[in-house]
Amino acid sequence: MTARAVTEATFEQEVLNNDKAVLVDFWAEWCGPCRAVSPILDQIASEHADKLDIVKLNVDENPQLAMKYQITAIPAFKVFEKGEVVKTVIGAKPKPALEADLADYIA
Amino acid sequence: MRDIIIIGSGPAGFTAAIYAARAELKPLLIASSVEIGGELMNTTEVENFPGFPEGIMGPDLMGKLQAQAERFGTEVVYDDVVSLDIDGPVKRVTLGNGETHEASALIYATGSAYRKLGLPEEELLSGHGLSWCATCDGFFFRQKTIAVVGGGDSAMEEATFLTRFADKVYVIHRRDSLKASKIMQQRAIDNEKIEFVWNSEVAAIVGETAVTGVTLRDTVTGEERLLELDGLFVAIGNDPRTHLVHGKLELTAEGTIAVDGRTSKTSLPGVFAAGDVIDPHYRQAITAAGSGTVAALDAEHYLAALGNENAAEALLENEFVAVD
């Protein structure tokens, strides 16, 4: 399962108004670590689909949102609950480390 | 049990894999989970790798090395090594997913990791204006004022690359001259957006929730001053990644894995090391690749002595003359 893409047009509906917790993966094509961590996120997404929604936001194509959420390093992962950012994780990490960071939302 | 396991997916690891795979040793290469391809994955244009007169992008070069290794039968695993048991004749490598793989020979080519400044605020501000990856994060500093710390080739490359985005790039260096190669220096010096801050080190990074500046300390007078910045990129060198072999393999005073002369032989039989993890001096993609070749041939020689016919045949084909 590949995490679906969100854009500035769909962000409100898919992320801010989502009933579940949503992890937004801020990424770009030219970011090597972003591409490396992507399959790990896909795995986490399929293993915890009941608890956590995982979506991808391309910062190149959606610069307004990248600016709004003050992204200065990618990959950056932000978990949203009820429209609010409740957790930020920055940088590509091995799966066990990411799972530990996200324990509150997937355990 | 396998003939050979290679740990690391940079130029050393993949080149060792090309040789070992062509020798029909069916190497297993542990590529890591998030740093596949190693340091070159975070670079842009590579202009000094022989055979690419027009230059090649770092990630493209690594993709080609991997494809070449896989073409001859290398199996690549995208996971991290969590522990090693390498004292005996069977080398055991345990991965993050819990699997343990066994082989007669091991090539250790884990490269090096970015050196940190060693400041307490580093952890907190990392990703909030403090970065080790210009190609990843430069994009977010359009029309900003930023600085690069360091005086080597990678600092020059980062500073030059960052001028695509930033209005102003300071290069902070603790000496009054650079270690970088002439061509990289000149490129940075000629760039109007780059200003050098000589004889200065970063005493502190300033900022509550994001970088707003740095406190610079003059390395000659000891005087301190504030330099206001939107972002800080660190390129002060690398440290060999040896934590998995501490207490298992002999290290040098420089912290690299000790090898015997120009070979790849470590202090344990059947364990070979290659690339930046053994090299405190040259640290180039092409020297790492050469070093990977040495490790593969040494490993083949070791396996041939254990009776491995494929290895013995490959050594003949490569006209290998044993060092010992």
Q: Can you tell me about this structure?
A:
- The complex is a heterodimer of chains A (about 110) and B (about 325).
- Helix content of chain A is about 35%, strand content about 30%.
- Chain A has five helices and five strands, in the order E-H-E-H-E-H-E-E-H-H.
- Chain A has helices at about 10-15, 30-45, 65-70, 95-100, 105, and strands at about 5, 20-25, 50-60, 75-80, 85-90.
- Chain A has a five-stranded mixed sheet with strand order 1-3-2-4-5.
- In chain A, helix 2 (about 30-45) links the parallel strand 2 (about 20-25) and strand 3.
- The mean pLDDT of chain A is about 95.
- Helix content of chain B is about 25%, strand content about 25%.
- Chain B is built from eight helices and 19 strands.
- Chain B has helices at about 10-20, 60-70, 120-125, 135, 155-160, 180-190, 285-305, 310-315; strands at about 1-5, 30, 45, 55, 75, 80-85, 90-95, 100-110, 110-115, 130, 145-150, 170, 195, 200-205, 215-220, 225-230, 230-235, 240, 270-275.
- In chain B, strands 1, 2, 5, 6, 7, 8 and 19 form a seven-stranded mixed sheet that branches. Chain B has a five-stranded parallel sheet with strand order 10-17-11-12-13, with helices on one face.
- The longest helix of chain B has 21 residues, at about 285-305.
- The relative contact order of chain B is 0.18.
- The model of chain B has no long low-confidence stretch (mean pLDDT about 95).
- The interface of A and B includes residues 33, 91, 93 and 95 of A.
- Chain B: Belongs to the class-II pyridine nucleotide-disulfide oxidoreductase family.
- Chain B: Its EC number is 1.8.1.9.
- Chain B: Keywords: Disulfide bond, FAD, Flavoprotein, NADP, Oxidoreductase, Redox-active center.
Summarize the structure.
Chain A is of the alpha/beta class. Chain A is built from five helices and five strands; from the N terminus they run E-H-E-H-E-H-E-E-H-H.
